[in-house]
Amino acid sequence: MRTDNPGNGMRKSFLALLLACAAAGVSAHELSDQPGLKIRVGVWNNPPVVLQDQDGQWHGIAVDTLRSIASDRGWRLEFVPGSFADLLQRLDRHQIDLLSAIAYSQPRAEKYAFTRNAIISNWGLIYARADSRIGSLLDLEGKKVAVMRNNIHARAFENLAHKFGVKVELLEREKFSDVLQSVRKGDADAGVVNRLFGALNANAYHLAETGIVFNPINIHYAAPHDEHKAILEALDQGLEALKGDKDSAYYEALQRWMNQSPQADFPRWLLWLVPALLGVLMLTGGLAVLLRRQVAVRTRELRAEVDHRRQTQIRLDRLAHYDALTGLPNRVSFADGLTTAIAAARRQDNKIVVLFIDIDRFKTINDSLGHDAGDKLIVHVAQRLKRCLREEDSIYRFGGDEFVAIIPRVVNLSAIDQLAERMLSCMSEPVDIGVTEIYSSISIGIALYPEDDLTSEGLLKDADVAMYQAKAQGGNNYQFYNAEFTDRVRKRLNLETRLRHALERDELRLHYQPIFSLDDRRIVGMEALMRWQDPERGLVPPDSFIPLAEETGLIVPLGEWALEHACAQIRQWHTEGLGRFRVAVNVSSRQFEHAKILSTVASALRNAGLGAQYLELEITERIFLDLTDKVADVFNQLKSAGLKVSIDDFGTGYSSLSYLKQLPIDTLKIDRSFVRNIPEDKDDTQIASTIISMAHGLNLDVVAEGIETEQQLSWLVAQGCARGQGFYLARPQSAENIGDWLRTNMAAPATAPG
């Protein structure tokens, strides 16, 4: 037995490794755009985009366009054939410089560099035999579907079937022609190909469209990632020039290869008929004339069919990528446009700006003037915004009253300020919507690549957040994305979520502050004050969460909870002999909106077995802003039931003497901000004195809040203010502690309130 020398084996392995490294070094080089440059182009049979003729020459829309650009640049093209899967591996290994046709997707963009401009648009279609009765995705349940290996439509179809829960068996094939052949032979029930290949070849296999259309894509040239930037840039320039000239090689290629008729199978009996026809000259001539006429008719029919399909596909493509109302590209086009722009910016080390634009108060206009008026406004806004942009910029209708603009190749951010100002200014003129003229405005959010985010999803989210920041400042302005603002929003959302759980987790508490008769300092009532025992932040004061509860509507269940627990506590004090005084509970104006406050109060009193004379409702002056006949009726019903109603923080909001006279109000509570600086501050002294006099004149009780010194107390008593509360008299305490305080400080129980 012969044995190899180990040393020789090691030397051979080392030599092979050196050669492989050298080959990799040669193949993975950056090509510069210069005459005489040789470019290795991967090609695979994918008519009409790429195809090989009988002489072995490569043609098609992508190849003919590439030849034209190469001719202008003085490049030499070397075509490297293979299957699509093989060419992807060659591109990964830098064994080819350019792939002649590949569909764009985000995962592929992370591996390869794409041209900005697409060669042609395409989408997936499913073909089946004419007698298959497959007309929708659900009809494919349990069927065998042929797909091309590593094809983007194959993956899209697999995801689509999974999304709708349709179970199919996928049969992978190397080429689209193999896919259609499998369906024709009966190996598969249906096949997935792109619409270009199917339109030109399905008839040859006696297959028909099923009507299942999906996955609109764009076909590009691609190179290895981070390489051949000059070549891709030259291709983009060439594509832009060719697409701008209707007589260019690009449109010649479209006309030539999109009009190719599929080859029909020749009947076998014609092979037997030829010898007979050769023997009968007259019959041959007659049949030839007849056949020529039939061929001419069939050719015209096929061309008409191809033209009809092409026009239909153009219409479908437009519907899929453009907004029907404004004619602007839509959300689908935006995703492709921004991803392509980011790829180009990464390659060229440029900046991109994304502007998220929203029409201010659009819902009000739409609801008051009708949807036709809203549509006309959207069209006018789209036209005005488009006029503000450069030719290389793009704007999309994102949906509803929202637009998004992509601004590539940004050098100076001051230009973005100027652009945003132009957009705001263009909305200053009235908009004629037919029935009338209206004035409208917009809010703009701005995000920057790469400063704010590196992904299309992140940039869109950041611009959206910035737009809402502009809305929060009143609209008709623009804001750049601010991470601090986003952090505040997240904290606010977190607070809202935890507040929603506070009721379920029994984290809310009621503290009670005594209300005194000021002349003899005898307790005559209590005010229930809500607190939140947050596990993360400890005891949270009401100013930190009540405004949020008002805004989100959580104040309604919080108010119901407060009434139930306050009434239960009053009953407990009665049982323990700790006094029979009235307790004031704060309620929100939102609880009056649907008259639910009536049933809430009745339920709380009934559950506690308590009389209405022991409960007082405190509301703020905001109730006057929402005052309607229905709200006034609720007040009257509460009064008839025996409850007292007081106005809390009087003087800080909206008040009207007419409302005080019309509504059954019992008490005015002077806000602590007017009590804090008396008697030193003349203005506060005058305001407090006026409120006390006005209350006496309207036969209303008056309570001073926030008493903190003996001087304040003495001045209030001198002015005739009968009741008050504040830290100087007693601090708010928990129900348990206030019970102990009552036992200590009440020499005798107060009488029941009248």
Cα end-to-end separation: 120 Å
Total DSSP E strands = 28
Number of helices: 26
Largest sheet: 9 strands, mixed
Task: Name the overall outline.
Answer: elongated
Quaternary structure classification: single chain
Rg:
40 Å
- Strand share of the residues? 15-25%
The unreliable regions are 1-28, 261-278, 747-752
Structural class: alpha/beta
Specify the helix fraction band. 40-55%
Query: Mean pLDDT across all residues, rounded?
Result: 83
Q: Can you give a write-up of this model?
A:
This protein has 26 helices and 28 strands. Helix 2 (61-73) runs antiparallel to helix 9 (249-258) and helix 19 packs parallel to helix 20. The longest helix has 41 residues, at 281-321.
Give a brief rundown of this model.
The protein has 754 residues and is α/β, with parallel strands linked by helices.
Question: What is the fold's blueprint, element by element?
Answer:
Elements: H1 6-27, E1 38-43, E2 51-52, E3 58-59, H2 61-73, E4 76-81, H3 84-92, E5 98-103, H4 106-111, E6 112-114, E7 120-129, E8 144-148, H5 152-163, E9 169-173, H6 176-185, E10 190-194, H7 195-201, E11 207-224, H8 229-243, H9 249-258, H10 269-279, H11 281-321, H12 331-348, E12 351-359, H13 362-369, H14 371-387, E13 394-399, E14 402-410, H15 413-426, E15 431-432, E16 437-438, E17 442-449, H16 456-472, E18 478-480, H17 483-504, E19 508-517, E20 522-534, E21 538-540, H18 546-552, H19 555-576, E22 582-586, H20 596-608, E23 615-620, H21 629-640, E24 644-650, H22 657-662, E25 667-670, H23 672-675, H24 682-697, E26 701-704, H25 710-718, E27 723-724, E28 733-734, H26 735-745
